[in-house]
């Protein structure tokens, strides 16, 4: 099987605060909202950080989204969510919240009240997944995916959690609008795995911590992302130290991307419409 070769390795820019709760590295850097990372749009990673006990949970208050999905993966601590479609929930380590903004939603994202009171370490990732033109008007949705519902594939020196997509016969629990793999991978030092992927799909390997040799040739360090050529059907990994990473791949949505703040549409006209809808209160009430 031909391997997918690395097209580029990008370093994360400096982290920035989202509200007062999440100091995030925008890992896709200049490739965010470009078709070379399709069907994904951007990825923020908040590395482990200790928070003091507080009666007022840190986080980000009510804001809108339209035209895509947000996928939040918690590694440490707890994240609490509430949205204008009437959904709410608290997710903890290993849990995933997959929110479809679709035609428009308002939500807020905080450390959970209980976890904020106790204080402690929080780390998480938020991935934005694009919707194709035909699904940008989909009804808002919320998938609360518990760690216990995510199948694990164990191998020599690590494990892979299939959040979305399929690894052989093992299928992930997330419903997606287009075909994609979102795999959460943990490797011990020396752990090795070969990942089977579709020939023709973009593939992206964000390394949150550790250091991984890819295809026996190139090292990808912590806070770096490897972007792969679409051709080729597999990627081989060997961890040089304990590592936490994601593998993202899928059928590309080769449509124009118009992105402005929390809205991701196909044209600037649609962006202006989204801003009007938000101002007119058409994305609901929270
Ligand atoms: Mn948000």
Give the termini distance in whole angstroms: 51 Å
What is the strand tally? Answer: 24
* Overall average residue pLDDT: 97
> In this structure, how is the largest beta sheet organized?
9 strands, antiparallel
The secondary-structure class comes to: mainly beta
Query: What is the radius of gyration computed over CA atoms, rounded to a whole number of angstroms?
Result: 18 Å
Tell me the helix content: under 10%
Key structural traits:
286 residues; 9-stranded antiparallel sheet; 24 strands; mainly beta; 7-stranded antiparallel sheet; binds manganese (II) ion
Compact overview of the structure:
With 286 residues, this protein is mainly beta. Helix content is 6%, strand content 53%.
Question: Explain this structure to me?
Answer:
With 286 residues, the chain is mainly β. 6% of the residues lie in helices and 53% in strands. It has helices spanning 113-118, 268-279; strands at 6-11, 16-18, 22-26, 40-51, 59-65, 68-76, 79-83, 88-91, 96-100, 105-111, 120-130, 141-145, 152-155, 158-164, 166-167, 170-171, 180-187, 192-196, 203-214, 218-221, 224-228, 234-250, 258-260, 263-265. Strands 1, 13, 14, 17, 18, 19, 20, 21 and 22 form a 9-stranded antiparallel beta sheet that branches. A hairpin with a 3-residue loop joins strand 2 (16-18) and strand 3 (22-26). The model has no long low-confidence stretch (mean pLDDT 97). Manganese (II) ion (MN) binds at residues 63, 65, 70, 107, 109. Manganese (II) ion (MN) is lined by residues 63, 65, 70, 107, 109.
Topology:
Layout: E1 6-11, E2 16-18, E3 22-26, E4 40-51, E5 59-65, E6 68-76, E7 79-83, E8 88-91, E9 96-100, E10 105-111, H1 113-118, E11 120-130, E12 141-145, E13 152-155, E14 158-164, E15 166-167, E16 170-171, E17 180-187, E18 192-196, E19 203-214, E20 218-221, E21 224-228, E22 234-250, E23 258-260, E24 263-265, H2 268-279
Antiparallel strand pairs: 1-21, 2-3, 3-4, 4-11, 5-10, 6-9, 6-11, 7-8, 7-10, 9-12, 13-14, 14-17, 15-16, 17-22, 18-22, 19-20, 19-21, 19-22, 23-24
